[in-house]
Amino acid sequence: MLDAFFKSVGLPLMGPYLWLVLSSTIGCQLLYLGSRGFFTRYSVTYQKLSPVKKIDFAIHIVSLVHALFCVIAIVPMFHDPELAKDRLFAWTPYSSSVLSVVCGYFWWDVFMTFRYFRNFGIGFALHAIGCVFVFTSCFRPFLHYFAASTLLFELSTPFLNIHYFCDKLGYTGSRLQLVNGILLLVTFFAARLVNGPILTYSFVRECWLRRDESSLLAASLFIFPNLALTSLNFFWFSKMIRSVRARFK
Model's pTM, two decimal places? Predict the structure, then answer.
């Protein structure tokens, strides 16, 4: 029944992988709750944080684990000849499994941003919704080849989270934060400011060359969020530079 429903809405791959998407969503929530319980019990510094910051801290834990999963899991996708044969529509069981986990994370992210909307605001909610649209569209199947380069954006996320943890756990201005800050800027520049425009150009070119095959709507769901994120990345990079420098003046 579910398979028939997803086929009717143009997402035939979602049916076979729905269990993994939901498992990922539930896993993220369990990790969130587990990290809150762990740090409440074992970290005096965490216990002193405000309720909102405790929530934010645990969300960063889940974000860190998700980012590490992404940067490891996408490596085989870059070297997969099956995906390279058809950059728009090719898929494999492996790529579908990876994207199921990613999609589940962003479903959880949407849930959290709306649950704590008053704390995190419209910006985080729109980002989460945009990511859900992009990665759910992969179950058409669509964009598995380009999804690997998109997930390369997560290369800088572990360092961003460590930077955040240093501030919250009393390591502001430490050597650890300095080294991490340098790695954050380098990886952010390479993965987002260099890789981002190249990815967008490659995708737009592929869609244009195969415009008779590709759906304009599906392509737009990838192109416009990607363009918006790439533009924001330049703004965020300047803020990161100021943030890192401010901690070592």
Answer: 0.91
The widest CA-to-CA distance across the chain, in whole angstroms, is: 61
Average pLDDT along the chain: 90
Task: Return d(Cα 61, Cα 83) in angstroms, integer.
Answer: 31
State how far the alpha carbon of 229 is from the alpha carbons of 12, 104, 128, 157, 216, in Å.
28, 20, 12, 14, 20
pLDDT in tens, 1-42: 788 888 888 889 999 999 999 999 999 999 999 999 999 998
Query: Using omega within 30 degrees of 0 as the cis cutoff, is the peptide bond preceding 51 cis?
Result: no
DSSP, collapsed to helix, strand or coil, labels residue 91 as: coil
Cβ atoms of 146 and 199 within 8 Å: the answer is yes
Give the start-to-end residue ranges of the domains of the chain: 2-246
Residue 51 has pLDDT above 70, yes or no: yes
Q: Are 185 and 240 contacting, i.e. CB atoms less than 8 angstroms apart?
A: yes
Q: Is 32 exposed, middle or buried (0-12, 13-18, 19+ CB in 10 A)?
A: middle
By CB neighbour count within 10 A (0-12 exposed, 13-18 middle, 19+ buried), where does 216 fall?
exposed
Q: Are 127 and 106 contacting, i.e. CB atoms less than 8 angstroms apart?
A: no
